Records
---
Amino acid sequence: MRTKDNLTPWNQFDEYRGKYFNGEWPTLKELFVINTMRYSSRQCWVEFAPKYLSLTYKEAEDRVKKVASWLLSLGLQKGDKVIVSGKNSVAWAVTYMATLYMGGTIVPLDSSLHDEDFVKLAKFSDAVVLIADNDRMKRVSGLLPMKGYACLEENGPYESVMNLSTPYKEGYNPNEEDVAAILFTSGTTGTPKGVMLTHKNLVSDIYIAQGNMNIYPTDVFYAILPIHHAYTMLAVFLEGLGAGASVVFGKKLVVSQMLKELKEGKVTMFLGVPMLFNKLYAGIINGVKAKGPIVYGFIRFLMGISGFLKKTFGIKIGKKIFSFLLKKVSLDTNRICICGGGPLPSETFKGFNELGIDFVQGYGLTETSPITHLNPIYAFKVESVGKNLAKTECKIVSPDSEGNGIIYIRGPQVMKGYYKNQEATDEILEKDGWLNTGDVGHIDSEGYLYLTGRAKSIIVTDGGKNVFPEEIEDKFQLYDEIEQICIIGYLKDKAMKVEGIRAVVYPSKALRDTLSKDEISARISAIIEEVNKTLQSYKKITMVTVTDEPLEMTSTKKIKRFVVAQKYKLD
């Protein structure tokens, strides 16, 4: 088995320390200035819709300075907060960096929020400038008295952020402990939870993540998931900036548009969620199956050889052998795929590696900037989310007989706390820096982390057995007939507080369009029975609900379990 070179990507800034920054880590502003010097003529940010737009690092910095000067002309002070909300775009990126460039704090809000929730979070954040998509500005700007407004797009109620022009003003210089961004976690109820991430949190995570993979200035990242989310914001937008690489902004999770942008952008770094990669892999394999059993068997045989050579000897032949297949999903230029946001089926993980794509699965949460673990491409384990990053500690607290317990994290990427919510901060962040993730898992003898589920979603069955819904849901990821499935508990014995396991299923469009309700129920029941045979007795599904309405999801395509539970859980 290969070992990785002892690389420390963060040491590349030693020559700039004392000249361009003085802390342990440069701030995001200082990082942007340094990398603009290093890569001034390289392509920085690109978008293909509604029209083609490309900025080099120097052009991006010039635009950032203009917007930062506009913010300062409004009277903004160091630490003042600016909201950005809208589809992924170059203008979004300019707004983000301009806010940091003038010394402020950026507040990225989910563009899919209902207006009522948007206004609530905007007011709670104490933001003084609002920059958003045209439609949002038309609906809420009058409800939010701000010092300044701008639109991300052309022809809106306010001037486009890309057209702002103000005499240059020198901004405030933040330090690494200052809050760079406040990110509101999905599913926020009651008092909002705004995660405060400092410059140190974000910049450290950019570079310690690179300790588990090689990223180059020649790489091209693809931002297709919502960029307000910590995963895309750090692992795509800021990671690209930190490497002096290029970022292509995609606006819609529409496969045809994605494939076009992947091809035209010559993307090398593609980050997504399990649902997205499952669909791409299924598309490849179904295309091979259509060629007949002989061709399919031969291709799978070659994939097996490719995977063995790569895993055992580090010999990569998959990309050359299967380039004709990868071209069909515009991944022929791709070097690395990274999956986050949930567990990935081992078949998908293994399959992409066999086809020649370095596939990386990771772990983290908004409160950790978000990356804490990555499965190293040189020594991956299919079932694991990987090893903790450099400078990052991980421990399991109160493990059960199988070694599963609450996952705690400590490292430079752990948040400063929740904005204006000390009580919630104290609940999960200990004074010595350890963060209670609320996730459950175990660590093997080689330091690889395995996830079991969320502590809050545990179902307690007969005999006091704990069942994690995610474990069961993962078994259904490759069943095309099921578009969504959510496992929840239902009360079998109210007095004893014993729960049974219930599956709420939204069938695929193909089933909904071709079968009757009774036929759909029969097919779903057959799939449930098939999966139940693979589960331990106390994990078997004992109640099934087939719904004709899609289950509510977050912007990163996670089912809102608490919403499903409220609607379907039986007392």
---
Amino acid sequence: AWSKEQTIESLDQAQITLALSTLNGLILKIDHKNMSSNVDLNVRPDYDKLISDIAEYVFNYEVESELALETAKNCLIDTIGCGLLALQFPACTKMLGPVVEGTSVPFGVRVPGTNYKLDPVKGAFDIGCSIRWLDFNDTWLAAEWGHPSDNLGAILSVSDYVSQKRVEEGGEPLLVRDVLHCMIIAHEIQGILALKNSFNRVGLDHVVLVKVASTAIATKLLGGNLNQIKDAISHAWVDGQSLRTYRHAPNAGSRKSWAAGDATSRAVRLAMIVMQGEMGYPGVLSAPTWGFEDISFNKKQLTLHQKLDSYVMENVLFKISFPAEFHAQTAVEAAVKLHPEIIDRLEEIETVNITTHESAIRIISKVGDLNNPADRDHCLQYMVAIGLLKGDLVAEDYEDDVAADSRIDELRSKMVISEDKRYSAEYHEADKRSIANKIQIHFTDGSATEAIEVEYPIGHKRRREEGIPVLEKKFRKNLELTYKKEKADDIFNICINQNELENMSVIDFQQMLSLSQN
């Protein structure tokens, strides 16, 4: 650790730590040689560095970025709006409400667009389930994919519960500003963990990151100290993690629409268990044989690729135009542009050439029967076919009645998928993060359309100025599905005003969105 010429006084802390760690390792090896081979060396470690780094960030971080706050406001309203839209679908609403009908709880959490008042765990599930159901709001793409807004299930549920409890005890409620701060923090944890750690490559679903981020922030909201946040995060990792099989052929199904609600509700439960005094597990990631890295991550080390700040919220992707899996957003945009050119020539189409990136091919390119809406909204070919046929794509287009149109499968059968290596590379480049697709249609007479290439969807940071007015229009439309026009207008006007929204109490915000009169 140091040369002969150096003295102990000349060493910095990192060198001292390395030296002590090396000596400790040597001592353990010597001791272990003197032990029987049928016993374990029971020396409890310090917390894994990754867990400590996340906990210290959650406990100490102060949001200073105005861009992050403004983006968080847009993320909040878009996420709420997507939840309201999902309430139009019985497959979603059947999942909502108390576990036992008629249950009443103190400080009940309100679920936007409903009259439910639920305990914080089920409240987190219902909010998380509804906002993710249609796969129509923010996305983060890296080595791992996911939707950081999923954490709003825990954030909004616990904030509502804590605020009501505070008022009952004579204190002040949390403000929506606090919710935005929590969103920025949760986005950052999930997004930075996703940069270089690919859970999908080991068969695990990205909602593990929702659970980790939501557990950390829920513990903070419940009043947890630094050590309690560490304890809670360790429980999130020690849980068995969800398999991705419900997102892929041949098992794609509706669980993918409530998986985030499940993760965020579990996070709240874990946070509450720790706040009751439950111990944590410091070496949950790194423990040989029994740790997460050995058991579930192919013995690779989990890393934080960069310092936790507000990078993810500032660069998050919004789904604005289409309720389509994000790898297909630009493909659908290209298909919609081609619609007028091909709609009267469907019988003449010979091939539909789709050039895309590796992640799209691995995740959403598939042939064969599509068995349910969840199967269809994760099929690149289906989404492109709808865009070509209709010049649009809406949530209802995944339902059985639309899928019965024989022209969809005819078009799918003519699609040829190929990878552009540049697209795949620029998908991962930090200064680009493109999600490129290109479509060209060839006809039987030898003619072809122009090759329509779209590298950045309208929800990308590079198109943010173009996208936000469309996002606000989308939010207003979703409000009008649930509330009478006068109330929808009032909610909209409050929500697009950054200062007014930030200074609104969480209790008032939740009551504004609730259908309950009390």
---
Amino acid sequence: MNRIVIESCALAKDTKKCYSQFSLKTAMTTSRTTERPPVVVVLGHVDHGKSSLLDFIRKTNIVAGEAGGITQHTAAYEVIHTTKAGDEKRITFIDTPGHSAFQAQRERGASLADIAILVVSAEDGVKAQTKEALKAIIASNIPYIVAINKIDLPAANIETTLNSLAENEIYVEGRGGSISYAPISAKRGDGVPELLDLVALMAELQELSGDASLPAEGIIVEAHRDPQKGISATFIIKNGSLTKGTYLGTAGAWTPVRAIADSTGANVESATFSSPVTILGWNALPRTGATVKVYDSKKEAESAAMLSEKREISVPEQLEDTNDMTIIPIILKADVAGSLDALAHEVAKLSDDRVSFKIILKDVGAVGENDIKRAGGDNRTIIVGFNTKIENGVRELAERVGVTIETDTIIYKLTEKLEALRAVRRPKRMVEEQHGTAKVLKLFAAAHNKQVIGARVEEGTINNGDTVNIVRRGEAIGKGKVLELQQSKQKASSVEQGSEFGTKIESTIEIAAGDQIVAFSNIAR
């Protein structure tokens, strides 16, 4: 060690800290680039077997724990794969939701990854979310492999699936393209080792590298608030190493690194590039997709969090109903930050020309008393909870103040509930529904806005008491009201198509022979 440094540290009050800071700075100036394990995102249409594939690879039962059997979170897992050559390769997998609501999470997963696996069912071929997944892959400019799954099922047809891929401009090897593919059964494991060999080969060709001597830098994958434990966040280390005793800072949030949990939940002393890690103790909920960095001190981490936070000036939105528009204030609560983003995306699509959903608050965690307070006694407010609990006594409090709470563990069921509420709260519009047309044959008398005319019903029915539009040469020129009807010199309650009749109409418009009277009813819709 440098003699000046030794003398300086010997004079320092905290010699241990002095030497450690010198070591850290020395490490940062000495590049030790090594091979970096690939980060692989698994994408595809809902129920095509993404989670089942990871389930087999990890030898765990992820699928059974997912609500409705579909993935609704972004998760990261680390595995060791032994290739045919006997080499052990570390691979980090990102599992993403297939449901259309989670497009943002799929895009985020693709942006984090080095390689993508596009899972396509051998029964169904390319579907809607397959195309969305492909767009995310192309936008992220990463190579990908196609996994043709469910080859063990009776209806599986690899040839038809390859044709479906080609029809969607996914050209695989042997079919005029260069995209590798592997027929697999995620359920039985057929073809999975070969798929992982392709991943290892693709990673080798990319020459991925990292420097473990640098302080860690990564991307937030998911964030969660627990009432007892506090806020935790999972991020994937893109470069460098993470050790205890340091600090992390990201947009609007920071935390000391007191403990590091790996993808299995086990505590580890340190972690390096491509590893997903979870850190507990954040001062605020980190934003998913944000960059997170290591800092030596709390002060530096706090400063970085403040500087990197995007401060937006929000303009208060109009929350008053009008005759044609109903405003529904919404408070969104979810178990994790990624799900909150997906929920907000779905709610935004529900507004139409007569009902507008306005998100006044979105947060991670259980539905609590503060959420009721935030509603401000406005009984139009709906609190929407996705995959989260309702604290004791909160539902009773909500009922007292008239605030609606809707919760579910499956996102599309929540949107169905909101669609039903939208239909109930939609403002009614009065529309004119035509039910009869008559042609004026003759004007008999007129006095004090009351006119006696003879006419013939051309279509439908004219009723006594009807409101009518008076139409001349195809243009409505005014309105009137039927005061009396006569047919064959007898009073009548209504006259039907083909009938000639006499009628007294009250109107300020002078009716003339050749005009039409169009009877209508005002219907609320």
